[in-house]
Structure formats: structure tokens, C-alpha cells
Specification:
6 strands, globular, 7 helices, mainly alpha
């Protein structure tokens, strides 16, 4: 799976670089056209960009801290998860989108919250898989313990669905 980072083209100061030139702080016409063509291809590949806002960093943290219910988190990400699964089936790849936020340390209590929500049937395993992949691939999350990373890698494994017994065993180790 591929992690996409949220990108905005309006109001973001761009610096000069390969294929990008600035004149007085404003992109020249050639650069604006290149960005527009890239954005058009992005929309063609992924549909309505407005619907691809990604998992909100703040929502991820609120859910993992227990401040947001699993049901509310599920409502926020279900469309994205469904789209990713559909893309996996039709295109052979899916996109996981996480918007930017401050560096946040994920600990065993956060991972335990995710596992507990799966065990309580509050969160489908596909959503837990999507979230675990996003946490692992995002530059905005780091991990306090090796056990936390191992638990998230287990949930992110797409090779086969985990059994309830496996999820229970890892949940017990996190507590």
C-alpha cells in the first residue's frame, strides 16, 4: 500500500526547484500549468479530491486516547477504507492517506485501545488494518516500545486475516 500525504496548492509558498520557478514569490505561468496538470491527473486517478481528506491526525489521536468513540472514528474513515479496499481489488494497490500533524508518540496503551475496539466488534479489522498501516508509514508518528510496533505490524499485515485468538493474545501482551 502507498501512503499519500495531504497536499494543498492554494496559499502554500513554494520554493524553486526542478521544473519550478518563482518570480517575486508568485509561480510563473509555466509552473502553474505543471501543477494544474499534476492535480488533474490526481483527480483522474483518485476521483473527487475533496473526498480524499485522509485520516485526520487529530482524530487518530483522539480515538487512540479514548477521547473519541470507535463508532465516531469509523464514521470518519469508513469511506476511505472502502475506497482503498476497492482499489486493491480493481487496481492492485490501495492508498492510505494521513494528513499532517505534530510528531506523536504511540505507546502500548494506544495500541491496546485499537485491539480492544476490534475485539469488542466496535471497529472492523479492515479499519484497524488501515489505521495500523497509516501509523506505521506516517512520519508524524513514532513508537514508545518495540511491542507497540510489533502489534501494529501484526494488524497491518495484509497476507491473511488474523484470528480472534491472535488478537486476544497480542491485546493481553499490551496490557
Amino acid at each position: 500500500m502507498i501512503l499519500l500525504r495531504e497536499a494543498q496548492f492554494v496559499g502554500v509558498p513554494l520554493t524553486g526547484g526542478a521544473g519550478m520557478s518563482r518570480v517575486g514569490g508568485i509561480l510563473d505561468v509555466s509552473s502553474r500549468r505543471k501543477i494544474r496538470r499534476w492535480a488533474d491527473r490526481y483527480v483522474a486517478d483518485f476521483g473527487n479530491v475533496d473526498s480524499l481528506n485522509g485520516m485526520k491526525h487529530s482524530s487518530i489521536i483522539s480515538f487512540l486516547r479514548g477521547e473519541m468513540s470507535a463508532g465516531k472514528f469509523l464514521q470518519e474513515v469508513q469511506v476511505e477504507v472502502d475506497r482503498c479496499i476497492d482499489d486493491l481489488k480493481t487496481k492492485g494497490f490501495g492508498n492510505i492517506i494521513v494528513n499532517d500533524g505534530p510528531l506523536t508518540i504511540i505507546n502500548r496503551n494506544h495500541a491496546a485501545r485499537l485491539f480492544k475496539s476490534v475485539l469488542a466488534n466496535e471497529l472492523p479489522i479492515e479499519v484497524a488494518n488501515y489505521l495500523a498501516d497509516g501509523l506505521i508509514m506516517s512520519e508524524d508518528f513514532d513508537f514508545a516500545e518495540d511491542e507497540t510496533v510489533e502489534a501494529l505490524h501484526f494488524l497491518a499485515d495484509d497476507s491473511r486475516p488474523p484470528t480472534i485468538e491472535e488478537i486476544e493474545a497480542i491485546f493481553a501482551e499490551l496490557q
